[in-house]
Amino acid sequence: MTIRVAIAGARGKMGSEAVKTVCKHEGMVLVAALDYKHVGESLSQLEMFPPNLDVPIYTNLSQLITETNPDVLIDLTNPHSVYEHTKEAMLHNVRTVVGTTGFTDEQLEELSLLAREKKCGCIIAPNFAIGAILMMKFAKEAAKYLPHVEIIELHHDRKLDAPSGTGKKTAQMIAEVREASKQGHPNEIETMMGARGADFEGMRIHSVRLPGLVAHQEVIFGGDGQMLTIRHDSFNRESFMSGVVFCVETVMTMEELVYGLENIL
Ligand code: NAP
């Protein structure tokens, strides 16, 4: 069976890579792109895509679904629009693969309930790279023995949300095995606001934003006279694409929402 795919955010850094990936995959066909501009145009009319890429662009998701009948919507947009896209797709019984980060806990909870009610598969993956999933798993394992931990996530300077979805997810996974406790000196004083980073159950998360970076993270554990560093680097956006393909294929068999690729690998 050929999976009919629509992509929201097709012009973006991740979205344009996903367009290439879906187009060259034998088991998938790209049926539409969702944008907030270029209404009525086709991807072939945009300079960044080949002139034979005759895929219609819609600005209205409901119309896109009615006219092109996708099986799966891949969302690679931004934290302002991803929730509405995911919810609307589910209401139309269209499965979703979401790479966009920046959901609130309440939004995740609400989408999870809706997915269960509609029996509609949805994968929300803060990171599609297998190496990053392993980095999070290894960090969770290490935290059982070395509970003093800080997370440093590093991304390109066009990223909207901080900390990154991967940084937050790593902290949540570590929190499953680590008792909440404040780190550092009990009386420490920040002489400059934010110097100690964001606080997640006493763990600190530091967000670095610089041009030239893609997506990187270090999880640093300190113990008596020792330090363990677990690091992952995505040097380009191809690193995410095998995860995108895996999710599109897997979501076709699912009837609920899964948050994090580590739960289905
Ligand atoms: P990007 O280059 O800014 O791409 C986002 C695209 O979405 C842009 O073309 C933007 O258009 C478009 N867009 C904005 N609002 C839209 C809407 N309402 N409908 C349709 N399209 C809309 O960002 P990116 O680097 O590709 O990242 C996209 C998302 O993926 C971010 O949340 C990022 O954190 C996440 N990400 C996830 C992974 C993962 O493994 N899960 C990896 C990397 C990035 P304009 O530019 O014209 O506004």
TrEMBL record:
It holds the Pfam family DapB_C. Pathway: Amino-acid biosynthesis; L-lysine biosynthesis via DAP pathway; (S)-tetrahydrodipicolinate from L-aspartate: step 4/4. It is an enzyme of class 1 (oxidoreductase). The gene is dapB. The lineage of its organism: Bacteria, Bacillati, Bacillota, Bacilli, Bacillales. NCBIfam families: dapB. GO terms for molecular function: 4-hydroxy-tetrahydrodipicolinate reductase; NAD binding; NADP binding; oxidoreductase activity, acting on CH or CH2 groups, NAD or NADP as acceptor. Homotetramer. Catalyzes the conversion of 4-hydroxy-tetrahydrodipicolinate (HTPA) to tetrahydrodipicolinate. GO terms for cellular component: cytosol. (S)-2,3,4,5-tetrahydrodipicolinate binds at H156, G165, T166. NAD(+) binds at G9, A10, R11, G12, K13, M14, E41, G99, T100, T101, A125, P126, N127, F128. Residues 131-265 form the Dihydrodipicolinate reductase C-terminal domain. Its EC number is 1.17.1.8. This is 4-hydroxy-tetrahydrodipicolinate reductase. It catalyses: (S)-2,3,4,5-tetrahydrodipicolinate + NADP(+) + H2O = (2S,4S)-4-hydroxy-2,3,4,5-tetrahydrodipicolinate + NADPH + H(+); (S)-2,3,4,5-tetrahydrodipicolinate + NAD(+) + H2O = (2S,4S)-4-hydroxy-2,3,4,5-tetrahydrodipicolinate + NADH + H(+). Its main location: cytoplasm. Belongs to the DapB family. The keyword Oxidoreductase applies. Residues 3-128 form the Dihydrodipicolinate reductase N-terminal domain. Transmembrane segments: none annotated. The active site is at H155, K159. Coiled coil: none annotated. CDD domains: DHDPR_N (cd02274). It is found in: Cytoplasm.
